Amino acid sequence: MPTSTAHVPPDSAADRAPTAEELLGPALHEEVVRHFTAEPDAPSAAVVRHRVRECLRYLYLVSRHPDRLGGLFLPVEQEIDEMWHYLILQTREYRDLCERRLPGGHFVHHRSISYDAYQEAPGRETAAEEALRWIPLYTAAFGPFDADALPHWTIVRFLHDELHMSLAEIAGLAGRTETPDGPAVPARDHA
Question: Which of 46, 79, 126, 144 is found 20 to 30 A from 34 (Cα to Cα)?
């Protein structure tokens, strides 16, 4: 089980974020997959593995960018949140994940709040802006969203399904909104 990934965020194309299995370890990874495939009306093991991947990617980003993502509304679907709950209940393993395997090296806390209550607090525009913050951070760490990630990220699914943006167009938002180090400066057309 690798622990050398802690506190070393990938900053170049040669570096890569660890996989869900590397972060959890093979035994816990398979336990999570087994648990969620055994539920009534469970999806296929492949879909559950993608959910595990996106749950760990979410936690990776929150750990790596607590100053920019801490306290924001969960931008993933309920199934991902339920996996996070399951991991939290594995207290020793979850603490190890947070403190030794995720890049921030700190415990990632969870606080439940309903979407309606959240939407009332900051307002719709703020909620949309916060949701869009995830796209450049995700693509910088993991590359563009793919079809397997699409169903699990609320804002990405909205952009794809409701605004009819392709995954390539969504990936292009990363360069226009901000970089991992702050707001991007849009390129100017010198025509």
Answer: 144
The C-alpha atoms of residue 125 and residue 52 are separated, in whole angstroms, by 30
Written as one letter, the residue type at 158 is F
Measured CA to CA, the distance from residue 140 to residue 69 in angstroms comes to 15
| Residue 35 structure tokens | 């648990």
Cβ-Cβ contacts under 8 Å for 53 (sequence gap 6 or more): 19, 20, 148, 149
- Would you state the structure tokens that stand for residue 66, as one six-digit string? 């607590």
Task: Give the three-class secondary structure for 63.
Answer: helix
Q: Is the dihedral of CA 106, 112, 113, 115 positive or negative?
A: positive
Angle at the Cα of 125 from the Cα atoms of 124 and 127, rounded to 5 degrees? 65
Number of C-beta neighbours around residue 88 at 10 A: 16
Report the SS3 class of residue 65.
Answer: coil
Q: What is the pLDDT along the chain (191 residues), one digit of tens a residue?
A: 333 344 444 444 346 899 999 999 999 999 999 999 999 999 999 999 999 999 999 999 999 999 988 777 778 899 999 999 999 999 999 999 999 999 999 999 987 666 565 556 566 677 677 778 899 999 999 999 999 999 999 889 989 999 999 999 998 887 655 444 444 433 322 22
